Predict the structure.
Amino acid sequence: MTDQPTTRQTLAPEPNGKTPHDPGPPESPADAKANRTRRNRRYIIKTLSTSPTFISGAVIVLFWVFVGVAWQLVVPHDPQAVDPFHSFEPPSSTHLLGTDNLGRDVLSRVLAGAQTVLLIAPAATVLAVIFGALLGLVAGYYGGIVDIFVMRAVDVLMAIPTLIVAVLVLGILGSSLLNVIILIAVFFVPQIARTVRGSVGDEVQKGYVEAARMRGERGFYSMVIEVLPNVTSPILVEATIRLGYAVFTAATLSFLGLGLQPPSPDWGRTISEQRAYIEISPWALLAPAIALATFIVGVNLAADGLRKAFK
Amino acid sequence: MTTATQEPPLLSVMDLNVAYMVRGESCPVLRDVSLDVRPGEALGIVGESGSGKSTLAFSLLRYLPDNGRITSGTIRIGDVEMTQLSHAALTHERGNNVAIVYQEAGSALNPSMRVGDQIAEVFRFHTSAAGDEARSQAVEMLRSVLLPEPEHLARRYPHELSGGQQQRVVIAMALAANPKLLILDEPTTALDATVEAEIVDLIGTIRSQSNTAILLISHNLGLVARICDRVTILYSGRVVEQGTATEVLHAPKHPYTRALVASIPRFGDAKGTRYLRPIPGAPPSLDTVTQGCRFAERCPLAQSDCLAEEPPFIALGEGRTVRCYHADDASPLPLTEPGDEFPVTERRPEVLQLRNVTKTYKKTTVVHDLSLEIREREIFGLVGESGSGKTTLARIVAGLVEPTAGQILLRGRDVPRRLSRRPRDVKRAIQMVFQSPDSTLNPRHSVRFILQRAIKKLGSATTVLELARRVRLDQAQVESKTTRLSGGQKQRVAIGRAFAGSPDVVLLDEPVSALDVSVQASILSLLVESRRTSDASYVFISHDLAVVRFLADRIGVMYLGWLVEVGDAADVFAAPHHPYTEALVSAIPRLRSSSEQVSRIRLTGPMPPPSADQPGCRFASRCPRKIGSICDTEAPPWRQTGNGHKIRCHISPTALTEVQSGLKS
């Protein structure tokens, strides 16, 4: 026996999209249904480990995660070391990707720049998932007026033009790592809340949730112990997709000067700084841009693989 | 209904083997299946889920999914060898010579196309007809499946039709190209009993008017008995018994067929008069390799030879074969579950009272001014077709739906409408078992966790193992995750969960309708038996009247939100009863159709619009016994017939008895 999502799916698929032809769920033997959960988990792992999409994405992401954590060990030069005498140097054996306008080593700055992205994007995503999932759970579980109130509030949040608010808020509160993280998280809460709300809405109509209500479980217990474990897959998938966007948003804010302030080697910031010198030293601009692109593509590939595996 | 034996068969399946590729391994689903259908004959294929009956239907038309393969054997339809056909020839064959009707008509129709055009398309594709000619032929087709106002109906979209009308349209489409063989795959499973009866009538009409042969695939023995001349019983991909419908269903020889027949409540059976015999265990999974008989493991008559080698077909007579070594062993099947002493319920005090309960959604009345009493230790059956409001009523009692008006009393004390307002003791007292076994238990939890939690919250002295023992779950099942259980086992856990706090009233919403008949029997006998250890009353909701008749002490009949009749089970099932109950009862498929032919009542009128304020009887528009305009203008009164039996009708009980018993005799 190797891996299989469910026996039934494979044994009786619908020919040419026709109707289900078996009455009710199968009363299949216990041993056929046995190990279904475990098999399901193994199926996910197997699908992921044989998916080129997921593997390539994961490799790229893991590379940047490693760099972000251990950049101090791998950088050839101090990314902040200014050397006015060697500015705008093209790639050479000492400076593999050349130097920028202040003579700083481009490669070192790109590697070091991974750190801020890897801090901001996951932190913002985690925050957004926590609050988004909470709102989605509450709205979907209680329904009715609570649902309307929460989801309309979420809709309002979605209708706000992100960058304008970002400019305003960061302009007033000042830009800091924490502010950027919170701001991105707030922007991402609506999407996650909606996804979770949809999945929870399907679950709460099921017998097991109603049985929990009928034996007098509190709402919080029902949400966390009964419903939440059954909506983890969509939450995980949504989180990976949001992660890609978070990287992008963080870079955009930095590019606009709303993120981290100089001399941070942050990619968005660096792209913004170096674009003035594109004709003199394109490498100083291209290197962080390509780094950013690979990271976002990597996250999205991994997200795509996950989404397929959880289907 | 001719069974001319010398005519060459229209459909001839010889030693058909079908396998699915599962995880790179070939997994046999059908093994050496052979059957014949002669022109004009109706053959029933009976089997439970997993028996391979649907696979058989699909392989006949070569509609098998990508991983399915006919590994050996032949399928001949007329002179055509189906297994050798090219794709183009197959397309021609499907429709022209063979047509198939699926279980769910709703999804077999294109929702964005008028039904007339969909049928006309068949004519355009399979005949030379085009344009207006095809369209008028489509209307004729709709007329031939006895749909009212076919010209008008042809211009409607599928969603504007009822489930029964949709199924008629699908049958019309299947018959459009005048096929020689019509395959019906569970054609009525999704339909209400009265609608099912209409479809059965229609199939009868088709058979009398044309020479179309019918292959009916179903798990419903009553339906097969009603339609088919011959029956093939399928078990775990094998044909185990073949013969005429009368012989196989009334004098079954194979232990599996015998067990199957013994596991369904027949018309008129009640728990006081008959045991239901569940079949222990479950069929072997398809990838299980067995040397001997596939049924041996569950067979009470199995001996060592059964396990050693698979029995061959043994001919018992003309066209009657059984795959069993011990088919002549007429010894009764031993009881596999402890019996019940069938306590007769005397009139006990009322435990639950509903007073004028009403539920309206905007302008639609789902439950209309309904009053009802449930007595202690009573099994109260609530019947009605889809849309009758029976589930809503149960959910109101459960607190999951708030009534618009009315009162619920538990032992004389007012029960808050909202679940969150109900004190712990009321929650303990009123529990519910839900319909779908697949969503009733949290897939992330273990059986132990679920039962433990229910005991903790509902507060009783019982232990998990004690509770599990009462619903006949073993230790290993208690420790397993719910996803590892079969449908029947899941429903047992759900019943155990409801009984965790020794409830006063347990609401059971179609708890067995998603289960196979043999499993259904074990749940029903569990419910009967649990009355020995519990004082709980049951409200048992079902659309299956035979099951309700078997289980219930008293029965309430609902129609479009109205309670139209209530009384002791035997009283409700005999004249005088409400004209709607009469129609329901006459629609029950009976196994012994040949000997006890009952003229069926057909409900022809349209369903009234679901608006709330309508004077008169809700059933008036379809009532076959309507007496006049009073039915449309005045709400019918409750009429007592004694013994707590009451009927809501303008016709007096004595007059009802007259017309109804006249029909019955």
